[in-house]
Amino acid sequence: MALGQITGKFATYRFGYEDGRFSIFADTEKLKGHSLVSQRDPVREAERHIGAFRLKPGMLALVAGVGHLPMLEMLAEQLKTREGKGGLIIAFEADTELYLALKKARPDIFADVAVIVPENLTVMAELVEHLDVENFVGYRTFENRGSLELQSSFYAQAITDFKQKLASRFSDLFTRLEFEERWVFNALSKLPLLSSARPVSSLFGLGKGSEAILVSTGPSLRSTLENLRSVKNDYFIACADSAYRVLVRAGIRPHLVFSLDSQAHTTKHFGLLPRGKKNEFPLLVCDAVSNPVVARDWQGEMAISFTAQYIDDRRVVSPGCDYLEEQKVFAGAGEHIPGDLQSGGSVATSLFDLLRLMQFDRIIFLGQDLAYTHREIHTPGTHHTDEWLARTTNRLQPLENINERVLRRRHTKREVSLTGKPIVTDYILSLYRDWFVTAMQRIENRVANATRDGLQIPGAEKLTVIERSSTGKVAQILSEYLKAGELEVDKAKLSEIGQKIRAARRHELPAESLSFMRYIGRKFAIKAMRAPESRAALLAKQETRQKHFLRKVASKLGSYA
To answer: Looking at residue 519, what DSSP letter applies?
Structure first.
């Protein structure tokens, strides 16, 4: 076909097929007749680009610039082969008009290519979310030099963002493989404790007309404790479990403590501190998969929550919690019992979502540094610094050295702090910050940041000091909460679960009939899929892990099993 012409955002393009050969030129103010493909032989150029690469199931091809149609066509052809099924092609194009024109000219090619342009960059997160990372093999980036010379910054940023999101997905997978067995174990271990707790949903809506302070253990918290102590009766104070010790020592009794972590060291946050009293603050809110010892030892008011993610209107709860719902353990009415909280990966993000659902007029961050302020990990007074000071430090090994050693194991980067100075943060802490920024855009609650130093949180009003407030209705929150009934647990269902676990231990029932068993030893199953030569040994390890898990769970369920 003859050369066509389109005026795009960055250039005027002339493209088409002449003498059976594809050509495309871009005219800009600085460049005239700039060719996006080889003028001599674009097909051979594409072959050199692709080389020995072959799309296979789990493989991903990233293409920077859709102007090289012969290269896209070759990759799309690979998808149509039996070996290529299951592969994926993702292309990035800075000029949307050029993409639309080429798609109109060759719809057969773009039918198999996911194209990211500036107008749909938000789709990237959704695209990465749908990747099957368990079966992911690898990716390769193909850069069209002609396109990069027009808008190099777009392609560099887009591909970097994609890789970061992909790395985050793998981080999530590794986290799940590391912890999901523990999550299932904790959720099942809490079954005997559930009847003495209330659903977290009983707190929803109780904050109307009041303001809340969310306390985390960033290094700058120490400089705000005096201010917090002066307003402790005016605000609803909710803290991460790691901050409980710091606040109690400062003479501040929080109204709510949130525990999310499933690991054993979570109990150290409470140490010899008060464990609460019935019908009084503080309330303990703990996730169903958090450390069950914390819930077992708590003597005051307790609420249970589920962590849930909503992906494309699809609700996904933590492993273990899905089994409790499937077995209809909770006898009360309601769509989701005991109530969902969304999390960005840290206890502070879950606590923020709870305060949002409690509908406080304003939520104020305190100690939310999200950075290594003064090159410290936490504020002094947490169990971390207590243990380091008691066991590890000496005149040759001061606390500063321990902080520095931890810091150097992190993938750190520099950003601008709240005070306008450079500050050290890392990739994970930046993800938490991004989660807060996104969450704040979707809620009606006002959000302020009274943290003295740390990473900037766009969208949060900056406060230098927390003023006294006359809007506090904290006492009413407790009285309204106490009106809610405790969780109704179907004891017949608990006995049924215990019997199934006992039957599986005796091989009277296949382990696969217990749906939560799919999480147990899953990392061995994934490795077996990737390493067929070691399949038998890896599956044997999975079976051993499952037997050990059933024995542990049965011991925790006591009379039910």
So the answer is: G
- Could you tell me if 341 and 306 are in contact, meaning their C-beta atoms sit under 8 angstroms apart? yes
Read off the pTM. 0.83
13-67 pLDDT tens trace: 999 887 778 999 999 888 788 999 998 899 999 999 999 999 988 899 999 999 9
CATH class given for the domain over 4-170: alpha beta
- Give me the helices (H) in 197-266, please: 225-230, 241-249
What's the pLDDT at 362? 96
Q: Strand, helix or coil at 389?
A: helix
Q: Are strands 412-416 and 4-7 parallel, antiparallel or unpaired?
A: unpaired
Of residues 554 and 363, which shows the higher confidence score?
A: 363
Looking at residue 210, its amino acid is: S
Give, in order, the Cα–Cα distances in Å from 5 to each of 9, 11, 101, 187: 13, 11, 9, 62
**C-beta of residue 258 within 8 angstroms of C-beta of residue 295:** no
Q: What is the pLDDT of residues 209-258, one digit of tens each?
A: 999 999 999 999 999 999 999 999 999 999 999 999 999 999 999 999 99
Report how far residue 8's alpha carbon sits from residue 519's, in angstroms, rounded to the nearest whole number: 50
Are 58 and 84 in contact by the 8 Å Cβ rule? The answer is no
- d(Cα 484, Cα 420) in Å, to the nearest integer? 47
Per the CB < 8 A criterion, the answer to whether 168 and 447 are in contact is no
Check if the beta carbon of residue 68 is closer than 8 Å to that of residue 47: no
Q: Hey, what's the torsion of the CAs at 324, 558, 196, 330, to 10 degrees?
A: 20
Do 72 and 113 touch, CB atoms closer than 8 A?
Answer: yes
CA gap 364, 366 in Å, rounded: 7
Can you list the alpha helix ranges (DSSP code H) found in 327-473?
347-357, 383-387, 399-408, 427-441
Task: Map out the domains of the chain as residue ranges.
Answer: 4-170, 190-483, 490-560
Q: Are 260 and 350 spatial neighbours (Cβ–Cβ below 8 Å)? A: yes
* Cα–Cα nearest to 209, from 447, 476, 542: 476
Which residues partner with 314 through β-bridges?
Answer: 311
CA distance 36 to 146: 4
Interior angle at CA 14, CA 13 and CA 17, nearest 5: 140
Per-residue 3-state assignment (H helix, E strand, C coil) for 420-433: CCEEEEEHHHHHHH
173: enclosing H helix or E strand: helix 152-189
